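Protocol step 4 of 5: obtain the predicted structure for the target chain.
Materials: sequence only (see below). No template structures provided, no constraints applied. The aim of this step is simply to have a reference model before the mutagenesis design in step 5. Sequence pasted as it appears in the construct record:
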Amino acid sequence: MTEAEAWWSRGVTPAERTAAGHRPGDAVRGGPTPVPSGDARHRDHPRAGGSRARSGPHGDAPGTLPSGASGASGASGASRASGASAARPARPSWAATVEEALARAPAEGIPPPAGADWREAFAAVLAPFTAHAADRLLDAARRNGADAVADLAAVRDCFTDRLGRDLVTLARRTLVLELHTARAAGRLRGATPEQRFADFAGRAAARPALRALLTRYPVLARLLARTAEQAVAAWVEILERLAADRADLVAAVFAGHDPGPLAEVRTGAGDRHERGRSVAVLRFGDGTRAVLKPRPVTVHRHFNDTVHWLGAHVPGLGLRTLRVLERPGHGWVEYAEAGPCPDRDHVARFYRRTGALLALFQALGTTDLHAENLIACADQPVPVDVETLLQPRLARPATDDPAMRALDSSVHRTALLPALLVGERGALDVSALGGDRDAPLPDAVPGWSAPGTDEMRLIRTTGVFAGAANRPRLDGEDADPGPYADDLLDGFRLAYDAITAHRDELLGPGGLLARFAGDGTRVVLRNTHWYATLLDESTHPDVLRDAADRDRLLGLVRRESAADPVLGPLADAELAGLWEGDVPLVGYRPGDRELTVGRLTAGGLVSRSGLAEAERRIAAMSPTDRLDQEWVIRAALATRRAHAPCGDPPLPGTPVPATPERPADSPHGAPNTTAEQSRWVSAAATVPKTPGSWPSGGATVPVSPIPSRSGAPESRTVPEAPDAAAVIAPVSLVSSPPGTAAAPPVPPPAPGDALSGPAVGPYDAGMAASGTAHVTPAPAPGAGPAGVPPGPPARPSAPQERAPVPCRLPFPAPGPAATPYGPLSAGAPDEERLLAAAGAVADRVLAAAQDNGRRVNWLGLEPLDGRVWAILPQGAGLAHGYLGTALFLAQLARLTGTARYATGARRALTAVPGLLTALAGRPTDAAVIGTGFAGLGGIAYALARLAVLLDDDALADLADTAALAATTAPDDGDPGVREGDAGLLAAMLAVRSTTGSARAADTARRCAVRLAALDPGHLPAGGLDSGAAGIGWALLRYARATGDDRFTAPGHAALRTAAARYATAPVGTGWCDGAAGTALAVADSPRALRDPGPAALLDRAVSAAATAPTADHSLCHGEAGALDLLLTATAAGRAAPGTVLARAGALLSTLDRLGPRCATPDAVSTPGLLTGLAGIGYALLRTACGDLVPSVTLLATPGSDRAAAPHPRAGHPAPAGEHDRTTAPRPIHRTLQGDVR
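Step 4 output (structure tokens):
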């Protein structure tokens, strides 16, 4: 071997260099070859001389060994350039392929054909590789006798077209860089940009130019050659298998019909695995098609067996299955031809059958049923990929969140139900029931500006989802699943009940499930889009000059999984697969506990086999579980509907030509360095954008690019399925004892105390049901869950269901009143009816609770941003999180003495201490959560209120900790109540007045100073939650609380400005509505009430709140919100008490007839405060008990300094033992020291 032959040496991977005897830091000696080194590598680069980043995405400087990486991937650029000598690796086979292809290149350039687009022009540059590979393919095919079963000329055309496109994808960025280099040097000829582009393409196709290109970019040469070699091997294999199997294929798949010779091969019908192999669709002479899978299809045959078994137990179901032909190492499957439905009845049958399949897939523990894995063959939903059946339980630490565990073990995990992928460009549903055609992709994708010209450059733009054949077509349109929800649920119930009734035929050694034990399946550990993005970004020319650079970029698989107990041991095998251009495949057999990636078989990564998991799941199926799953189905379908929770704008969807990560002078891609490239992959490839987490000192810190409206979801790790006993059976909707008011604090329950009464499904539509269920025993009598400060010890003489304090304040009973729903014929509500209705709502909340014996949490339908909703476990927020839910339960427990409500509230707080401890040391995470009502401010307020209601001083300390976390969060510039300083200011005043916290007082002062400096004329519009009204209200409240009149003028100016904006605007009913929210702020601000303009707006809002219809019962902008405004206006003397009672009577009437209606898409029940059940119940308590239940939307406390005024019960004394609003409450565990200064 001569020195000149070492042109390929920098295309050898670090692992291959190590195997050849190199030490990690050794250079690869290239001799006097044209391979540039050091600065010479970049001499012809448009950015020559520019600085390169010194820090990678995780702090690793380029050239240093990343944390967790082996020495093979850590060869530094500095040591490579040092000139150290080492033994040369053996000449790789791909180098010979490159040289053989170059020999076929024309000696002189040939311009591309007229009218050719840029892809065709670049394909002509790379044509020597495709021609060389095509000749090898045909030679092998003829030797193997494939010419007897295939039209080889047609096969060659298919092969050349597919390989050409693949090679262009690998080389396009480098070719565009070379185009700009030639343009900058003045080497291009032509009068127009198009002519100069054609001149470049023609010159680049010449043998000397192509050889020079591949010498500069030996990694690109490697990729081109390996891709061509893999394509030849894969297509030869296809033709060999067809020749060997054809007779059996005709008999088994084509039912005896001979379709003629092979006319077309279409590969890429799935991800590339195992050295370039993918699912192939073969079309024969008469148009008939078949699918060839490069892996065994035994699992599909066994799936067909279970479908036939289900059909035998559900008459009329008639699910279609695909014919299969099994062969060792591969298999053939009937092609599923999509077809339309003639009418709505056929569409309904499609969704009924889909519901039945959903039940079966859930029982079999299936995942990854996205849009491309289901074909709508008229009224038949036909699964075409069932390789993800019987998923195992992985050996990862189980989440402590019972709601997360419930979600992970629900029908939601199948991916058949709608689930939105959310990104900066929008949201996309790629589920088997979604896949909307022409929908924008959620994240930016690479595109090209001025293609086919010498100004061509890469941009980041908004892509479009082309759609799939997964939904039935009716009259030329995809039939949305929403109108067919009942059909879907009907099919689900029938199949679920059949599986439950006949489960013995599935389970045990002789059951149907046992047949799957040795089948080849796969486990999806990472989103395949992440791999695809990483592979695409690794074609950047900066990492194609030396394999060590590309290896560091691909080594992101190591860095991303270093702390993952399952992915970590597989990372090296994943890296090897990525070097082959593959999406790594994790193989698995359901009866085993080992995972396989490439040549690696790893044990200890599975804690329970897929077969055992499915048997456990099927054994636990029950009527109660079915109701749980039905809620998930309805909620998932609802997420497809755009629904603004509070008038928020929709997600942006306009294309953006560039991103901050891509410099303007980088025509061929985004980042300039491997480090920047890794950052782009990490940011752009994390789909879906669901929050992640990492461990921190016994707690878990949230990591989410989408701030959750619930506040901090303390864990978003992938959980394991729960044990059957860990999720409590949903419980009853029995209302609280009537005629009750304030009661002493309720002690924690003793082991075995009932959490609620009769059992029903989550958020059941009825107001009563039968059955029983019990909370799992607490760790010790009188003690809270681990990590939660315990409540007071149980008194031996105190009953667990506290005796209620009789209500001494009967409501007046006016005559019939006009309401949005007609006259009240039954008279006005009294406290007994209101408390009973609140108790019924609370029992709904408890019925949906998930309890692992230590912690309680809920699944809910939560707004992510704009009009996007998702099914999520509640996070630690006030607005939509479990603290808001707990506040309602604790308030009801304090008023009625009912122990189960206090129990639910206490157990909801388990994760709070660890969460706040972690956030206190992570300011950036605190900033993601926000500091206002929906963030840390609301968390601190809720904890202070809960400290009083549960008589627990330790919760007050946690409120102070939340205040500390809020003070360390960087200011994001949002001054509003919901997200920023105004909400934090009001919350800190509440914390200060409740706990005496000096930190809260100081934080409130700082917020007030910042808000007072704002220009009222430039404050945002909006309701109390987000606009100038909330800022003015917060400043006026601060002035009243502290006596510091310096804040009165700016506060009044802001509130007056807001009122003027809505002087003639229509008035809604909620704090998020511009006019109504401003009116609520006015009603709570005595100074503003003396101003005619704001007072007039309040009067108009009161009139609207008294009679205007609402779409729901929510606290944010529904019936409960209208009551909140009327109660506040009544306290201010601007509304008559009878108006409140009339509106409350209307709410009770609809609750009795229809049940609660939440402010969610399709009114799906959800537990949260602003849009869900907790807010509805809280409004009922506030109406019943007035000043004892302060306005939560105003972040008020009992005895707060707002002006006192008569409640509808005016003239009656408050219940004994409670503070009147005009009396300052005694701090819980310390006296208030001084004022807020």
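Step 4 remarks: The first strand starts at residue 262 and ends at 266. The two ends are 83 Å apart (CA to CA).
Proceed to step 5.
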